[in-house]
Amino acid sequence: MQGDRTIEGVLLSAEQIAIRVRELGAQITADYKPLVDWTAPQPNIMAVGILKGVVPFYADLVRAIDLPIAFDFMAVSSYGAATATSGTVRILKDLDKAAEDRHLLVVEDIVDTGLTLSYLKENLLRRNPLSLKIVTLLNKPERRKTSITPDYNGFEIPDVFVVGYGLDCGENYRNLPYIGIIRT
Ligand code: IMP
Question: Tell me, what CATH number does 41's domain have?
Answer without folding.
Answer: 3.40.50.2020
